[in-house]
Design goal:
single chain, 426 residues, alpha/beta, Rossmann fold, ten-stranded mixed beta sheet, 15 helices, globular
Length: 426
């Protein structure tokens, strides 16, 4: 999880973006879809061209497989046997059209902010006093991560909850990800993407809202709480910040917390290279991930393996369909290369893009709360998070199970904690 990115431009060559006001219009793969003008918000439907799916199957069939040392499993990377099984399922059983239809059941829209077309899911609750909640993904996730939690958040009564816990849910695709446009300028760090999300919430007319996110979305959430406190009433995150302090690291830290942190650091010691590559040479990496769907899937699946609470079998945490639908979002929009740039842009302190309009901070910083899942990338002691945050936390929950992709892996635990946090702030 780390660094900045962009949106829809190249994705258009592979995808028909059906944007319509009641009727679905086809756009050829060579045409650039019209940008909404001014502050206009247009309905959006996913409609991938059939030739894109045929090309995908052809590429999968022609995969050139690497060798693997006999007797090894996941220690060198995703095992060949697992990838062959996944690719076979992708070719023979996976149904993109069915998944596409499910995703299109969520109300989706596009609008232009700071020169970029921004895609977002926007599902309103029927409850009168629902609180707007913007939920932001990271890498290698996407808005599809949140499919299991949108219903419980917007319609809590239908999912065993209380009407007073209802939210209007907004799930944007970060610039350079999915159906949002790819930036053409340098400098689109995660913090500048957060500005765009603040501007999106204002455009939707929400003067009071909550924020939630993990991975890069955690940084976006913290930025909104810190810089748009006049509108953002609080931020909830499932990705706590907090590194080992140089000064007195054991202050207020239990032995159990320290053992947990050290064990997770050791588990992930061989899983750090992706960040270094994406933060320094994202384009070089992008050639292979753009050309080979098998390579792209392996690159993503490797992170789902490392960062989830699967107990030795990945499908204890995610079905093949869930894994592949997230992979497909990257493939059909040709957004893997542009998405990895978030790592480079966020670490190089580049000048502000010229296309960005000004943003003025509002109000005082809003409270932050955290849910810590045991197989998260970072599992710091609570005291470290408080020291990194500059004071006491408004909320802290340590979960019994789950990992980095909490909304997919443990949706009920996450939803319950989000409800609990925002009850204090509504």
């Amino acid at each position: 999880m780390k660094r900045s990115s962009t949106l829809l431009g190249n994705a258009i060559g592979l995808v028909v973006l059906a944007v319509a006001l009641g009727t679905l219009g086809a756009i050829s793969a060579q045409d650039k879809p019209p940008k909404p003008e001014g502050e206009k918000i247009e309905p959006f439907k996913i409609a991938v061209e059939e030739k894109v799916l045929r090309d995908l199957k052809d590429r999968l069939a022609r995969t050139r497989w690497p060798d693997q040392i006999e007797g090894t499993e996941w220690e060198y990377g995703v095992p060949v046997a697992y990838m062959k099984e996944l690719v076979e399922y992708w070719q023979a059983k996976y149904d993109w059209r069915a998944e596409e239809k499910k995703l299109n059941n969520f109300d989706q829209f596009v609008t232009t902010i700071d020169g970029l077309t921004i895609h977002f899911v926007h599902v309103k609750s029927k409850e009168k006093n629902a609180l707007p909640l913007v939920i932001t993904h990271g890498w290698p996730g996407s808005f599809v991560e949140f499919a299991k939690i949108i219903g419980p958040l917007t319609d809590p009564v239908a999912h065993g909850g209380k009407a007073e816990d209802a939210f209007h849910v907004i799930c944007p695709s970060l610039p350079g990800f999915a159906f949002s446009e790819k930036p053409k300028e340098r400098g689109w760090s995660s913090q500048r993407m957060a500005e765009v999300i603040a501007k999106l919430m204002a455009r939707l007319g929400y003067t009071r809202y909550g924020a939630q996110g993990g991975d890069w979305g955690a940084g976006v959430t913290r930025w909104l709480a810190s810089n748009d406190g006049g509108h953002c009433i609080g931020g909830h995150s499932n990705f706590p910040p907090g590194a080992r302090p140089m000064d007195d690291p054991m202050r207020e830290v239990t032995q159990k917390e320290m053992e947990r942190w050290e064990a997770r650091v050791k588990e992930l010691s061989d899983h750090r290279a992706y960040g270094a590559i994406q933060g320094t040479r994202p384009l070089t990496l992008g050639y292979g991930l753009t050309d080979s769907p098998t390579a792209l899937a392996a690159w993503i699946v490797d992170k789902f393996w490392a960062w989830s609470d699967h107990r030795g079998k990945l499908e204890n945490s995610f079905t093949k369909d869930e894994l592949l639908t997230n992979v497909m979002i990257y493939w059909v929009t040709d957004s893997m290369a542009s998405s990895t740039r978030i790592y480079y842009e966020s670490s190089h302190n580049l000048p502000r893009p010229k296309s960005m309009t000004p943003f003025k901070s509002t109000g005082k910083p809003a409270p932050m709360g955290y849910a810590l899942f045991p197989k998260e990338i970072n599992v710091p002691p609570k005291a470290w998070v408080e020291r990194a945050s500059g004071g006491k936390l408004a909320h802290w929950t340590e979960m019994p199970r789950g990992g980095h992709f909490a909304a997919m892996e443990e949706p009920k635990l996450l939803v319950d904690d989000v409800r609990l946090f925002f009850r204090k702030l509504r």
